[in-house]
Amino acid sequence: MPKKRIVSGMRPTGKIHLGHLHGALLNWKKLQEEYDCFYFIADWHALTSDYARPEIIRETTYEIIIDWISMGLDPEVSTFFIQSHIKEHAELHLIFSMITPLPWLERNPTYKEQLRELTHKDVYTYGFLGYPVLQAADILIYKANGVPVGEDQAPHVELTRETARRFNHLYGETFPVPNVLLTPTSKLLGIDRRKMSKSYNNAIFLTDSDEEISEKVGQMITDPQRARRNDPGDPGICNVFSFHEIYTNNEIVESIKRECRSADIGCVECKKIMASSLKKGLEPIKARRRELESDIDKVKEIVSEGNKRARAIAQRTMTEVREAVKI
Ligand code: SF4
């Protein structure tokens, strides 16, 4: 039986950090075993919010693909492609925009939240409002059965499901209604204990040098109740400890847990141990990255192959869609 297909993308608006790695990419890696995965660089989506600084898109597109391969996504198993290289996405977006009721977009909670939060950018645009319509096209053009997303993106996928149903109702059964595959939220926060994000300037990147890692870990906020060295701490609410749980070996994690509670270990020492575990944990990814950086033509070839595979499917779907809408 052929594997079910999933589609997911990443916007090239900056470098990959540990929030991406633990929030999405390691899950993508796991999904490769069970699904036929299509992973894409969402460069048109990047323009919806970053249209005023497009240079970041070219700068980061291949960097992100290098990170994907370095952390274990396998181009032999999954299809990597660039959204804007498959023009059919734009055509399907246009057709979907004809049948999408405006209130579906205006009531989208993510849209409302971003309008509030992105105060430094003017996102009162047609493209930004229509972001979920483009996303529906990205997913449905591959007739995906599932979409792995974080909780914040789930309403967008709901809109994709609505779009598929509406299209099928108007023009006949064309698209499967994809399922939401909810990605567990990463426990790792940024160094200031907010969600890890490049725009908060609190992220640890996969490309950070050992010195940068030491410096950032040194600045991390720990248990906020632990004001003095002699105060007992609570690892359960400490972000440094969440990193230990992933990157440090179990025996040491257990002793840190005990010694933190009895104030036998100070945060400075604890952070040094964590920084060293983190550097060790990231080293294989960095080593693979160095190899790929020295052979960028190979990375471009991978993308070109992926584009070809994606385009063939997108073209087939568009033939059906044009037939259905009598164009
Ligand atoms: S000792 Fe470690 S686990 Fe405990 S509060 Fe400090 S940094 Fe966190």
Describe this entry's structure for a reader.
The chain is built from 14 helices and five strands. The mean pLDDT is 94. The chain is mostly helical. It is elongated, with a radius of gyration of 22 Å. The strands form two sheets. It has a three-stranded parallel beta sheet. The chain starts with a strand and ends with a helix. It has helices spanning 18-34, 43-50, 55-70, 88-99, 102-106, 109-117, 126-129, 131-140, 154-171, 210-219, 239-247, 250-261, 267-293, 296-324; strands at residues 5-10, 36-41, 79-82, 146-149, 179-182. Bound molecules: iron/sulfur cluster. The site of iron/sulfur cluster (SF4) has 14 residues, from helix 11, helix 12 and helix 13.
**How helical, in percent, are the residues?**
55-70%
The gyration radius over C-alpha positions equals 22 Å
Q: From N to C, what is the helix and strand string? A: EHEHHEHHHHHEHEHHHHH
Please count the helical segments. 14
**Low-confidence residue ranges:** none
Strand content: 5-15%
What small molecules accompany the polymer chains? iron/sulfur cluster
Distance, first to last CA: 34 Å
**Backbone structural class:** mainly alpha
Shape: elongated
Largest β-sheet summary: 3 strands, parallel
